[in-house]
């Protein structure tokens, strides 16, 4: 959706306040889209102030803030009504070890994804849904042949996750599988992206897990941020075909470091 000019189109972005979400919102606004930014708590300035600042400097786009509870299907349908596209980014990332991982991670991730897709279907007019999954839906996959590129055929091993208490990869895997199943059964155009390490200029006031790696004491960053994976010659060719412009990794890291410096996270 973001690869061309908007021509007045409206899109919904769930999880809009996060690192990827706010960067996406900026790109959409700059292209003239009307963006409905879904956040968990619209009254929380930490979730909304940086988005409103983006709207103030936007190049022709318009922004409105929506409460986005992934388990409130009716509210999601209302938010999606009138939209030509939906970007589903919202998903819980952490779990309190004292509390129930099922209700904290699994239900919001899996049922939330179904609810967003159902809302897109019921709203009418949505041409495509872009779901942000994760590399965590691909690894850990201990049974995958060594030396072979992990592609769409490779899924995280749920049994391995359950035995080792690794709940985030399990939640992302089951959520992505639910997305593909819903798309197939309901004729919905769905695209899934699986980000790994997420670095670059920061927009939100809080630091994400990937950027936190740069704050660690070692002065040399690891050459391979995803150890054990085999590099594909053109790993992003499908995304490039959709209009994604790929930045050199050196620029990404440099921009990330400068952003952390400007925010006072590193000296």
UniProtKB/TrEMBL annotation:
The keyword Oxidoreductase applies. InterPro entries: Epimerase_deHydtase (IPR001509), NAD(P)-bd_dom_sf (IPR036291), NAD(P)_dehydrat-like (IPR050425). Gene3D superfamilies: NAD(P)-binding Rossmann-like Domain. The keyword Oxidoreductase applies. GO terms for molecular function: oxidoreductase activity, acting on the CH-OH group of donors, NAD or NADP as acceptor. Pfam families: Epimerase. Keywords: Oxidoreductase. Residues 11-204 form the NAD-dependent epimerase/dehydratase domain. This is NAD-dependent epimerase/dehydratase domain-containing protein. It comes from Panicum virgatum (Blackwell switchgrass). The lineage of its organism: Eukaryota, Viridiplantae, Streptophyta, Embryophyta, Tracheophyta.
């Amino acid at each position: 959706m973001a690869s061309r000019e908007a021509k007045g189109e409206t899109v919904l972005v769930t999880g809009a306040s996060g690192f990827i979400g706010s960067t996406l919102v900026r790109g959409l606004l700059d292209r003239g889209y009307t963006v409905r930014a879904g956040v968990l708590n619209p009254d929380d300035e930490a979730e909304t102030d940086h988005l409103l600042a983006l709207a103030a400097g936007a190049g022709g786009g318009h922004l409105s803030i929506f409460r986005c509870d992934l388990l409130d299907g009716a509210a999601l349908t209302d938010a999606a009504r009138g939209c030509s596209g939906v970007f589903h980014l919202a998903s819980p990332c952490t779990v309190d070890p004292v509390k129930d991982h099922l209700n904290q991670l699994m239900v919001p991730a899996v049922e939330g994804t179904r609810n967003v897709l159902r809302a897109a279907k019921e709203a009418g007019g949505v041409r495509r849904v872009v779901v942000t999954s994760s590399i965590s839906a691909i690894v850990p996959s201990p049974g995958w042949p060594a030396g072979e590129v992990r592609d769409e055929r490779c899924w995280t091993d749920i049994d391995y996750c359950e035995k080792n208490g690794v709940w985030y990869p399990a939640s992302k895997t089951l959520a992505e599988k639910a997305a593909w199943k819903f798309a197939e059964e309901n004729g919905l155009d769905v695209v899934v992206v699986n980000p790994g390490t997420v670095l670059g200029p920061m927009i939100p006031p809080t630091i994400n897990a990937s950027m936190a790696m740069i704050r660690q004491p070692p002065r040399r960053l690891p050459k391979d941020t995803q150890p054990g994976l085999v590099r594909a010659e053109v790993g992003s060719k499908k995304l490039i075909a959709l209009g994604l412009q790929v930045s050199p990794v050196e620029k990404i890291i440099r921009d990330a470091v400068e952003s952390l410096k400007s925010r006072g996270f590193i000296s």
